[in-house]
């Protein structure tokens, strides 16, 4: 036997062999876990660095636009988690079809007061310090609370399931309105409103992907745990909202829309074909030219005092409409058509997929296909919108809603999974494209001192049209060959309303031109 060695026939006890093998496996697993953790940490740091560079680029970090972008990512992530958690509980239980009446009642009780009060929120918040930051934070905090309530309601099958879910929906709409006024106030030098909103939209896409991952992991333990994860995400969003820069609350230098003279259509730097550079710049019948001072104070003539009431909500509403250039109103109605389709799809398909499943596909899978189509369409819309937004944006917005209308009609004729996927894709593309074109028109046509007011007011009107679409999705019979054509008719109505804006502008211009 060699020195220090073992006999040739030496064998370790089985217990020692097992312990050594266990230690070797443990060391291998430990090294693998350590390597995975390090790789994950490096990937996380790389992703965080890239995200920070994206949100803070172009001076967005200095103005505070980066914080709004990050906040919107948290908002979208929370909404995605909540949607995933409720997809298999709220809309896919045996009582869902019979609960449409309850859902309609809750929608009426929660949405209608919200729609009536929303136009008053902006002016009210402008009168208080820190108003908008706390308003945005309140919408997120409310959803955090309701997510916790929903988690308990899912576990106990509580009757609070429907009102809490619709409360989250209302809070999400309110968030969009209150956030709308923040972006124009935080624009960095040299950054357009379109580019800023496109950046915020892309952050929302990233947030939706992150929310899908977190929600999917939570769903492994059950919908209640996914909702609790959503609660944590909304808490983070609440803190982010409170930490927004003070410029979000400041309305210094801004003028309410109803207190301004009609805003003329801004003449382009390069004269249009057949138009003199010094030609009157408005189709709204105003003699006010575009000046560096922006919108002037409203000084109604004798004729205007007969048609514009200076007192009351109706008078303010009329004045706002008269002050906004026709291309902006034109694009707002076109964008509103895509909002009608969005609200309709959410409510109508949630019940239709359960009541009339498509052969070979579960309702949850159909909704997942539609959501995927909408997500891809949104991404394509952001890319295309940044390329074509300056090519007659009002026409592009009109083409977008017409494409959505045709897709809706096609779905009503050839109802099936693939037509629904195409509808989702076209809806996402048209909604994003129309919104970017609308932002471009607000940036181009509206003076800076009323831009925030116009943007917030128009977002309120778009949310009202979303409610109209959602109401259609609830009250219409669960028949795709009836529901989709009726929704297409509603989209045609928005197209007609958009076309009327130019017609009215031309008529007013003709009436105000001096004879001879």
Automatic annotation (TrEMBL):
Main location: membrane
Key words, A-Z: Cell membrane, Membrane, Transmembrane, Transmembrane helix
Amino acid composition bias (Basic and acidic residues), ranges on this chain: 269-278, 289-303
InterPro entries, A to Z: MFS, MFS_trans_sf
Region (Disordered): 262-303
Transmembrane segments: 103-122, 199-219, 225-242, 328-353, 365-384, 396-415, 481-499
Keyword Transit peptide: no
Subcellular location(s) per record: Cell membrane
Membrane topology: Multi-pass membrane protein
Gene3D superfamilies: MFS general substrate transporter like domains
Protein name as it appears in the record: MFS transporter
């Amino acid at each position: 036997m060699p020195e220090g060695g073992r006999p040739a026939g030496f064998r370790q006890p089985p217990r020692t062999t097992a312990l050594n093998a266990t230690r070797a496996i443990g060391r291998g697993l430990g090294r693998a876990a350590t390597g995975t953790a390090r790789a994950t940490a490096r990937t996380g740091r790389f992703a965080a660095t890239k995200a920070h560079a994206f949100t803070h680029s172009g001076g967005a970090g200095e103005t505070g636009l980066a914080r709004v972008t990050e906040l919107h990512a948290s908002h979208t992530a929370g909404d995605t988690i909540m949607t995933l958690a409720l997809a298999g509980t709220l809309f896919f239980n045996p009582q869902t079809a019979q609960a449409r009446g309850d859902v309609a009642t809750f929608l009426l009780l929660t949405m209608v007061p919200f729609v009536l009060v929303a136009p008053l929120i902006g002016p009210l918040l402008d009168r208080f310090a820190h108003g908008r930051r706390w308003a945005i934070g309140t919408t997120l905090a409310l959803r955090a609370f309701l997510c916790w309530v929903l988690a308990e309601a899912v576990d106990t099958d509580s009757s609070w399931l429907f009102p809490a879910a619709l409360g989250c929906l209302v809070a999400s709409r309110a968030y969009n309105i209150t956030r709308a006024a923040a972006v124009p106030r935080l624009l960095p030098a040299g950054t357009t409103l379109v580019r800023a909103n496109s950046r915020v939209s892309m952050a929302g896409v990233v947030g939706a992907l992150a929310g899908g991952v977190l929600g999917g992991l939570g769903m492994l333990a059950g919908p209640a745990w996914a909702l609790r994860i959503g609660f944590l995400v909304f808490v983070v969003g609440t803190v982010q909202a409170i930490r927004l820069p003070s410029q979000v609350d400041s309305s210094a230098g801004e003028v309410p829309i109803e207190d301004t003279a009609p805003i003329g259509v801004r003449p382009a730097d390069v004269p249009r074909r057949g138009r003199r550079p010094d030609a009157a710049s408005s189709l709204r019948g105003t003699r006010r030219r575009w000046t560096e001072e922006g919108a002037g104070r409203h000084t109604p003539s004798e004729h205007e005092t007969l048609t514009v009431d200076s007192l009351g909500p109706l008078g303010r509403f009329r004045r706002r409409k008269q002050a906004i250039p026709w291309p902006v109103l034109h694009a707002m109605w076109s964008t509103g058509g895509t909002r009608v389709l969005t609200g309709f799809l959410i409510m109508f398909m949630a019940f239709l997929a359960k009541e009339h499943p498509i052969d070979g596909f579960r309702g949850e899978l159909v909704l997942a296909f539609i959501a995927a189509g909408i997500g891809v369409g949104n991404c394509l819309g952001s890319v295309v919108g940044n390329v074509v937004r300056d090519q007659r944006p009002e026409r592009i917005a009109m083409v977008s809603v017409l494409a959505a209308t045709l897709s809706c009609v096609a779905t009503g004729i050839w109802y099936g999974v693939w037509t629904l996927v195409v509808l989702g894709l076209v809806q996402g593309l048209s909604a994003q494209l129309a919104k970017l074109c609308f932002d471009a028109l607000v940036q181009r046509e509206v003076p800076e001192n009323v831009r925030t007011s116009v943007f917030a007011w128009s977002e309120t009107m778009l949310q009202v049209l979303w409610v109209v679409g959602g109401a259609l999705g609830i009250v219409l019979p669960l028949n795709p060959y009836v529901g989709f054509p009726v929704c297409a008719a509603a989209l045609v109505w928005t197209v007609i309303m958009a076309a009327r804006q130019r017609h009215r502008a031309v008529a007013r211009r003709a009436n105000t031109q001096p004879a001879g």
